[in-house]
Write a structure and sequence with these properties.
Shape: elongated
CATH class: Mainly Beta
Structural class: mainly beta
Strand order of the largest sheet: 3-2-5-6
CATH topology: Immunoglobulin-like
Oligomer: single chain
Order of helices and strands: EEEEEE
Radius of gyration: 16 Å
CATH architecture: Sandwich
Number of helices: 0
Amino acid sequence: VIKTLISHKMESGLRKDSKTGKLIPRKIIKKFTATFNGKPVFSVDIEPGVSANPYMQFSVKVQESGEFEFTWVDDDGSVYKTKKKIAVKG
């Protein structure tokens, strides 16, 4: 089981700033993907209703040691990536 968490406000664009009364601009993660040794293993399109700091959990079975790469894409075009190496024993 793979678990990921990203620190992100997930602003829907529907909330107002309590001080100014103006709408807070929309800024949401719209896509999450995971690859293992460069091959896709999981992908999901994320909707605006997902809460802040999106947590993802998924299962994947790998036969060899290697590296996961996790990518989050924001609707403003920002891309956040992280990598994690794992070792398969036995």
